Amino acid sequence: MTDQNPNQQEDSLIDFPCDFPIKVMGKSQVDFGAEIIRTIQKLDASFDASKVEIKASAKGNYISLTCLCHVESRAVLDNIYRALTSHPLVKYVL
Length: 94
Description:
Elements: E1 18-27, H1 32-43, E2 53-56, E3 62-71, H2 74-85, E4 90-93
Antiparallel strand pairs: 1-3, 1-4, 2-3
């Protein structure tokens, strides 16, 4: 039997640290992009907002942001996902 450190990172298909794209979708509102950027920057101070890709839906009712986050660990990635999925303006996070 081997000793396992409970703080060791779980087996993952992702090699950390890495740049990880996160797509965030919500209703098209004036402050949607700024709110999402602020939410990510609270957890990732190195997040570069200038690299965010923005797309509107065909009818303009929804907007999606593709945010490239540099994540150091699975815990950081999970924290970003939790913050985004719990945000009241967000409908989906992929």
